[in-house]
Amino acid sequence: MDFSISENQKMIEAMVRDFAKKEIQDDLMRWDEDQIFPVPLFRKLGEMGLMGVLVPEEYGGSGFGYHEYVTAIIELGKVCGSIALSMAAHNSLCTNHILTFASEEQKKEYLPKLASGEWIGAWALTEQETGSDAGGMLTTAVKDGDHYVINGTKNFITHGKSGNIVVVIVRTGEKGDSRGMSAFAIEKGTPGFNAGKKENKLGMRASETTELIFDECRVHKSQMIGKEGDGFIQALKILEGGRISIAALSIGIAKGAFEAAKQYSKERHQFGKPISKFQAISFKLADMATRIEASLLLTQEASDMKNKKMAVNKITAMAKLYASETAVWVANEALQVFGGYGYTKDYPVEKFYRDAKLCTIGEGTSEIQKLVISRECLK
């Protein structure tokens, strides 16, 4: 694997860094406090090509690979985890599901709108009683002539209210049957399809999370993605790429917290010298930097293998597990470097601390990642 940074990555890194400074930095705490999902910002990200990073140019996307995608998420995550999370969810879940499994007609209909940022995408798998146990989902789609009638509720759905289209996985067969679930693309405004409760969250507060409610929602069979019964298998493949997204998000948050702590340690004086001169602090920074670098290397390997269309189930789970746990650990250590000031909203580290925890839960908990890794190791 080539560890050098490509010119495209350098360009994306500089572009996103400049964008975040101009368009995000001054408003991120207001968005966080008031749980504002800044839809206009994502239109601007679309204009920059960041809402369709992996989408081929023929469908209006940027046509890049996972290395460029990871670079963009990391740079956004260094400033605001919420914005990076929403950008990642749009790209790797909804948009990528359509790109990977939809018909040519569906791709031409939806991908240009998603890649441009004209539309924001959502992806719905989780239910209240079936988080990690997706096979036990209760939301059903019953065939009625050329239509399916969908009933049930999904929860913890990113962009559930503001999204223009959702890819939803529902049960079309027996409960617990991996071949008993199917995927549908459903547009906002479809009768019987509505957003429910908006979650009041600890962190990632500017990334919208809501319920989705389906009440006698009729969709034409042409809205199914792929074949009936393929939905769960499709979802597992999409989550492989999603793990890379969360690993990158975790690295971004960890880097943001680390850089804030490093800068503060140079500025804060105790006993006549910067606290960075004390071994207790300098060793913390050394450990933080090492774990971030290890997380990055795992994620780069996963990205390289994903670009080459290799089997990535184990490596993406490893990257997601290690990077997300690293983000939580680094954010905690960074807050400790700040001391009492780190516990206040006058400094950015408390937000990194709150945002980081989601990374160990979303798109597969750390425990699920260990299950995936152990199964792969024991084959």
Could you please describe the fold and organization of this structure?
With 379 residues, this protein is an alpha+beta fold. The chain has three domains: 7-120, Acyl-CoA dehydrogenase/oxidase, N-terminal domain (Butyryl-Coa Dehydrogenase, subunit A, domain 1), CATH 1.10.540.10; 122-229, Butyryl-CoA Dehydrogenase, subunit A, domain 2; 232-377, Butyryl-CoA Dehydrogenase, subunit A, domain 3. It is built from eleven helices and ten strands. It has helices at 7-23, 28-34, 39-47, 66-77, 81-101, 104-116, 231-267, 279-307, 313-338, 349-356, 366-377, and strands at 121-124, 140-144, 147-158, 165-171, 181-187, 193-198, 209-220, 224-225, 269-270, 273-274. The strands form three sheets. Strands 1-4-5-8 form a four-stranded mixed β-sheet. Strands 2-3-7-6 form a four-stranded antiparallel β-sheet, with no helix packed on it. The chain has a two-stranded antiparallel sheet with strand order 9-10. Strand 9 (269-270) and strand 10 (273-274) form a beta hairpin. Helix 4 packs across helix 7 (231-267) and helix 8 (279-307) packs antiparallel against helix 9 (313-338). The two termini are 25 Å apart. The relative contact order is 0.12. The mean pLDDT is 96.
